[in-house]
Amino acid sequence: MEIVGIYGSPRKGGNTDKLLDMVLKGVHSNGGYINRVYARDLKILGCRGCDGCAKTGICVVKDDMQEIYPLLEDAKAVILASPIFFYGVTSQIKSLIDRGQAMWARKRLNEKNETPGTQAMGKGYLIAVGATKGKNLFECAKLVAKYYFDALNMTYEDGLFFRGMESIDAADKNPEALQQAYEFGEKIKF
Ligand SMILES: Cc1cc2nc3c(=O)[nH]c(=O)nc-3n(C[C@H](O)[C@H](O)[C@H](O)COP(=O)(O)O)c2cc1C
Fold first, then answer.
1. Which of 150-168 are b and which e, b meaning 16 or more Cβ less than 10 Å from the residue's Cβ?
2. Does the model's pTM come out above 0.85?
3. Residue 102 and residue 51: Cα distance in Å, rounded?
């Protein structure tokens, strides 16, 4: 069982890192192989919208995203984690998400040709953290995640959201939140 955890924060050792680490620790307690993807360490250009993937489902842009596609194709679950930046996900993770267009194109081709792979193939989860406490703080990120997982032929299963975390050590100083993240991971079973 392959699981991909996508770390979306540019801030190394910050709240997203700590919370996703705990979620993945919980996931790992049930076994499985975990691939960790740190978006900040990758050079991933935005989607060109060039339609280069339309007939093949394969992205023509040769950058670090080419290493990520095989991980996503094999994944039984993807856990996307991002801090909220201006009510959305970070640009680091958004370029990775937009490049999911090639996987969406592949899904469309499979449906058209009635080849296998048209069923939901995996489960998607979202972890998000923001500094403020606004009611709609996570709405945009949730929609992005839902439609991203759909492109990956996955279903959006669940999300875990933390408000009021601003400083780099906010999650570290919050054992309850870390425990909640661990338990969220433990519940991810196949
Ligand atoms: C560019 C930028 C934009 C931000 N926008 C928001 C925002 O719209 N709402 C919010 O609640 N927090 C916002 N924040 C605060 C971060 O979401 C918060 O500090 C978070 O804990 C950072 O997570 P990290 O430690 O994983 O990077 C913003 C921070 C930055 C740097």
1. bbbbbebeebbebeebeee
2. yes
3. 9
Q: What is the CA radius of gyration of the chain?
A: 16
For the chain, percent helix, then strand, then coil, each to nearest 5? 40, 20, 40
Report how far residue 151's alpha carbon sits from residue 157's, in angstroms, rounded to the nearest whole number. Answer: 14
Q: For the chain, what are the domain ranges?
A: 2-186
Which class for 114: exposed (0-12), middle (13-18), buried (19 or more C-beta within 10 A)?
Answer: exposed
Report how far ligand 1's centroid is from the alpha carbon of 164 (Å).
10
- Read off the pLDDT of residues 16-70 as tens digits, 9 standing for 90 and up: 999 999 999 999 999 889 999 999 999 999 999 999 999 999 999 999 999 999 9
Ligand 1 centroid distance, CA of 179 (Å)? 22
Question: Whose Cα sits closest to atom 7 in ligand 1?
Answer: 86
What is the spatial distance between Cα 139 and Cα 150, in angstroms, rounded to a whole number? Answer: 17
CATH architecture for the domain at 2-186: 3-Layer(aba) Sandwich (3.40)
With the most atoms of ligand 1 within 8 angstroms of its CB, the residue from 12, 85, 137 to mutate is 85
pLDDT at 36 (0 to 100): 98
If one residue of 16, 21, 86, 127 were mutated to test the ligand 1 pocket, choosing by the most ligand atoms within 8 A of its CB, it would be 86
With a cut of 70, say whether residue 118 has pLDDT above it.
no
Note the residue count of the chain.
Answer: 190
